[in-house]
Amino acid sequence: MRKKISLLLIGLLCMTAVTGCSMSDDASANTEQDHVIRIGYQKNGPLIILKSLGTLEERLDSLGYTVEWKEFQAGPALVEALNAGSIDFGRTGNSPVIFAQAAGTPFVIVAAGKSKFAGSGILVPKDSDIKTVADLKNKTVSFAKGSSSHYLIAKALENSSLQYTDITPAFLTPGDARIAFEQGDVDAMVVWDPYTASTELFSNASLLVNGEGITTDRDFFITNDQFAENHADLIDVVMEEIKNSSDWSNNNHEELVAMLAPILNIEEEAIKKAVERRIYGVDPISEEIIQEQQEIADTFYRLNIIPKKINVADVMQEQSK
């Protein structure tokens, strides 16, 4: 009996030790995770510049944090990752956040990028009989579904007294759209820089209209609700470094072109054209920006592109002046 009791006590002690080690390992893992900020980025965006410069890592290292970068091909996928909890912070265009809010995704918009309307537009072949937006009636037009280009074409048609149903949409990524455009499978394509610039320069294309008077085509910096609540100080640090990297970009075009060309695998001439017609930077959320976004949401709802009416101010952190 004593032997059995002794064996039982030894067994319990071993189980306690194993459990203790497991809890210790879990606690260690949780502590490590608490000191990592996971950032979602796209190759064509201000966060790739920040990542390439490496300044955020230096800043956060002094605070005891590390950065984990996760690349996404498109804004909708990035927002979904935010919803799933696999990233804490990211940047996307003006339309993916509208679709995400309409789908009930919990997130907060903490800041906006500068307008980049000059590099977003509708492209047609140089020898096309399409001379105005009104000429797009009954034509096939390519654009990425749920992207900033989705809104640009919808609003451009509306401004020209056409219906969204007056065109045949071809939902294509910029790369696939370029191929379809060059092969004559679509009559026009709607896209953003540097794809706009590359198509203008190397695919015998003309810019029918850019975004002026149609859309500001801003970037938006987003985070999930919980991270915004628990790590406002970290978000401030990230935004400060985004501003710093934007200033660097505006003042170092030659170095910026050399940085981006191999990352994007796009001609340096196209990158140069793209960076020279935009200003990098960050704007605080203002009533004007809220109104811009509300117009996008209302347009998509009116066209039955999103399922319900939304109030964009619900996810935007307006900052005092």
From TrEMBL:
PROSITE patterns: PROKAR_LIPOPROTEIN. Keywords: Lipoprotein, Palmitate, Signal, Transport. The keyword Nuclease does not apply. It is found in: Periplasm. Residues 1-20 form the signal peptide. Its main location: periplasm. Residues 36-252 form the Solute-binding protein family 3/N-terminal domain. One of its GO terms (cellular component) is membrane. It comes from the Bacteria. Pfam families: NMT1 (PF09084). The keyword Transport applies. One of its GO terms (molecular function) is ATPase-coupled transmembrane transporter activity. Belongs to the bacterial solute-binding protein SsuA/TauA family. Part of a binding-protein-dependent transport system for aliphatic sulfonates. Putative binding protein. This is Putative aliphatic sulfonates-binding protein.
